[in-house]
Design a protein that fits this description.
elongated
Length: about 80
């Protein structure tokens, strides 16, 4: 299985799980209420970044998606799972 498909499957699972959890807690929620941010570690090689970008763009074709590069793997804003799910 090509790496872009593996990344795509992982992204799809995480996205679907997050949406399911949000829907269980917010009855008036719409998918369009979300601006998605995908953080790609800065230490990744360009090929890996490109693979992740292709997979994410395929998954979020018609939705808002922002890419962020995290220096040294650190994410600037961190929310606990209970804050977002």
């Amino acid at each position: 299985m090509p790496a872009v498909e593996v990344f795509g499957a992982a992204i799809r699972y995480l996205k679907d799980h997050a949406l399911m959890q949000i829907r269980q807690r917010a009855s008036d929620f719409h998918d369009t209420d979300i601006d998605w941010v995908l953080t790609v570690p800065a230490i990744w090689e360009d090929g890996a970044k490109q693979c992740m970008t292709l997979a994410a763009n395929e998954e979020w074709k018609d939705e808002r998606l922002v890419f962020d590069s995290a220096a040294n793997g650190d994410i600037e804003s961190v929310f606990s799972t209970s804050d977002i799910i």
